[in-house]
Amino acid sequence: MHEAGDDHGHRHAGPAGNGVDQPAFLALERELTVLLRRARASQGEMAREVHPDLESSAYGLLVRLDEGGRQRATELAAYIGVGKATMSRQLRALEELGLVAREPDPADGRAWLVALTREGHDRVRRVREARRARYAGRLADWESREVTELARLLHQLNRSMER
Do residues 62 and 80 touch, judged by C-beta distance below 8 A? Predict the structure, then answer.
């Protein structure tokens, strides 16, 4: 493989088809851009369905608590990719909305665990069920194996992005 410059002095792998200019990667970039744009818009809608005053960015935090159960704020911050101050602010807002509660960590009396309240769990469950129903409706003409394969490939992509 060799590198070539374009008219703007940028370097890229050549020949075409062997590197990032390969049509498959161009198509992947385009489709992921569309998917991510739609996902961001959808996350805002789902957050408002959970609670009208819920910030869009907090929806993923609620889903994490729904799936993983009670966790330390530091674990949540690391998973979401935010700092402690941002996580503290988000958790305070979620507590004020009655969606999460903090409780002492039995393994470490100095630490706290965050968990969904019954209200938070019920609201998140309803929104997630409605979301899955929308997916099922939009993909009704897909074969079950195609949906399974899409989920497998997205999981594989997500795992590779963690590295």
Answer: no
Q: How many CA atoms lie within 13 A of 153 on its CB side?
A: 8
Q: Which residue matches tokens 């330390």?
A: 72
Chain segment 59-79, per-residue pLDDT in tens: 999 999 999 999 999 999 999
Helix axes 84-96, 73-80, angle to 10 degrees: 110
Question: Does the bond joining 52 to the residue before it have cis omega, within 30 degrees of 0?
Answer: no
Residue (of 122, 127, 52, 121) closest to 93 by Cα position = 52
Name the amino acid, one letter, at 159.
R
Q: How far is CA 8 from CA 3, 11, 17, 22, in A?
A: 14, 9, 20, 19
pTM summary value: 0.76
